[in-house]
Write a structure and sequence with these properties.
The structure holds two protein chains of two kinds.
Chain A lengths: L4 E9 L2 E6 L2 E6 L12 E5 L2 E6 L4 H12 L7 H13 L7
Antiparallel strand pairs in A: 1-2, 1-4, 2-3, 4-5
Chain B lengths: L19 H18 L4 E5 L2 H9 L10 E5 L10 H12 L3 E4 L13 H6 L4 E3 L3 H9 L5 E7 L1 H12 L6 E7 L2 H10 L5 E7 H7 L5 H7 L3 E4 L3 H17 L4 E3 L11 H10 E8 L3 E10 L8 H4 L21 H5 L23 H4 L4 H7 L7 H6 L1
Parallel strand pairs in B: 1-2, 1-7, 3-4, 3-5, 5-6, 7-8, 8-9
Antiparallel strand pairs in B: 10-11
Helix pairs in contact in B: 1-10, 6-11
Classes of the chains: A alpha+beta, B alpha/beta.
Chain lengths: 97, 386
């Protein structure tokens, strides 16, 4: 669960951002992020919380890494499973208080 | 879902990388830097399951020079959850209290039983992917819900955030959260330790900042390099670490600047330390680690399972532990003293489907990772024969 998962912020309401992950929008808590974010920013998320705003210059490289990790992976691949777990955490039906 | 043929070829091929030329250059640099030290083995420890996954999955050990020994230390939070901590959760579950926890925690052995055993016997144990989901479970009911929380500082931040948000009164946290920097000191000081450098985990350092390791370097004169999880990030971190070992001037270096700063994520640290305080406690199979456990502060006693419930551990001691447990070498593996190769149970009596020790249970455990990606990913031996 150390990998986290990157996504793009669509909208923000209070402590919750709707974040796009490969075309799927999920709610994420943004109350522990390092710096304020606005729609369009990319964030790195862990267990349902955005923990870092990804700088503009690093977005492409970060996304490429996750594409690489997810692409060839079978169902039993541990790294891909970690990333799917992170997505499930972001997808908590109530990522709200 | 486990066992059988490995999903990915464990061999090292430059063509697997997005930048094959850079992979080849890093492999060469690692070889020449290691050779320049003029001794073997040169031992490096990393403390992150995701690093081990990247090393094993991409076959990086085949690119390491034979003199370089890269081992995984206590980098799996589920694996270092101590037996009495599991017993607390099992005792509560057996007494009818509803437990919510991360999936990897289910099969971690306690003295005589795991949470999975308790669930099979009728206890209610829910798997959650995060602290928020555990709070949601509590909101949907009047009965007590205990969140059995594991993870290092990165994950503990999420637990802290839900506690600060004022969860319902029937929610509480049974914290098995652990803090990495103190255990690095313990492992470095172990008799027989050969560790000459630490590769620190990028995302944990995203929270704490790389500055947190400066005290360690000053005390132990062992360099620390923070590295990311891209295979090339791992290789680049190792090259820098071997250079630092050779320089005789140990310091902390940040080889993952796109994610890690010196000070880290201050708002996250603020929440972490407002809710938790470091306490000494045992890490499974390793040692007592001063300040290694994260426990809820007095101010949050209302959500601290240990202060809310009278937990009867003695009820679990009537049962004999499984007979193979005494042969498990998980502790030595996490301390860097042994590898899964050295364990008589690995891949035989102990498999992901029938794990004996915690290192075979968690997806971040050394044994589980080695079993998954071809069992014995140290391809140097194969290369020597070829």
């Amino acid at each position: 669960m150390c990998l986290g998962v990157p996504g793009r912020v669509i909208s923000i309401e209070g402590d919750i951002a709707q974040v796009d992950f490969w075309g799927v929008t999920k709610p994420v808590r943004i109350d522990v992020i390092d710096t304020p974010v606005v729609p369009g920013d990319y964030v790195l998320n862990h267990v349902g919380f955005a923990i870092r705003r990804i700088p503009e210059s690093d977005i492409a490289e970060t996304l490429a890494l996750y594409d690489e990790l997810l692409r060839p992976a079978g169902d039993d691949d541990l790294m891909a499973a970690d990333i799917r777990g992170e997505l499930a955490a972001a997808g908590a039906p109530g990522a709200r208080r | 879902m486990t066992g059988g043929a490995p999903a990915i070829d464990g061999g090292f091929s430059h063509l697997k990388f997005r930048d094959p030329a850079r992979a080849a250059a890093l492999e060469l640099a690692l070889a020449s830097q290691t050779q320049a030290l003029g001794r073997a083995p040169v031992s490096i420890m990393h403390v992150c399951g995701s690093h081990e996954q990247a090393i094993a999955r991409f076959g990086l050990r085949a690119a390491f020079p034979p003199a370089l020994d890269v081992m995984m230390g206590p980098g799996c939070p589920v694996c270092v959850t101590d037996v009495p901590e599991v017993d607390e959760a099992v005792a509560l579950a057996t007494a009818g209290v509803r437990i919510a926890t991360y999936g990897d925690m289910l099969r971690v052995p306690g003295t005589s039983r795991s949470l999975a055993d308790a669930r099979a016997a009728g206890a209610r144990v829910d798997v959650v992917y995060g602290a928020v989901q555990a709070v949601e479970l509590a909101r949907a009911t009047d009965e007590p819900v205990v969140f059995f929380a594991s993870g290092f500082e990165t994950t503990a931040v999420a637990t802290a955030a839900v506690v600060l948000a004022g969860p319902p009164a029937n929610f509480s946290v049974l914290s098995a959260h652990k803090y990495i920097p103190p255990v690095m000191e313990i492992v470095a000081e172990m008799p027989g330790s050969r560790i000459e450098g630490f590769l620190a985990a990028g995302h944990a350092a995203t929270i704490t900042g790389w500055g947190v390791f400066e005290r360690f370097v000053a005390r132990h004169r062992i360099p620390v390099v923070v590295a990311g999880f891209e295979p090339l990030d791992v290789l680049a971190g190792l090259v820098r670490l071997v250079e630092l070992i050779g320089s005789g001037e140990p310091r902390v270096e940040n080889a993952f600047p796109r994610c890690v700063t010196r000070d880290g994520n201050r708002p996250a640290q603020d929440r972490l330390w407002r809710v938790f305080e470091p306490q000494g406690g045992r890490w499974r199979g390793i040692a007592h680690v001063p300040n290694g456990n994260l426990r809820l502060r007095d101010e949050f006693a209302a959500w601290d399972t240990r202060r809310r419930f009278d937990i009867d551990l003695a009820s679990l001691w009537d049962h004999a532990p499984p007979s193979l447990v005494g042969q498990c070498t998980c502790g030595d593996i996490m301390a860097g003293i042994a590898s899964p190769h050295d364990c008589a149970l690995f891949g035989r009596e102990c498999t992901p489907d029938a794990p004996v020790g915690a290192c075979m249970v968690s997806s971040e455990g050394t044994c589980r990772i080695w079993h998954q990606y071809g069992g014995h990913p140290d391809l140097r031996q194969i290369r020597r024969r070829a």
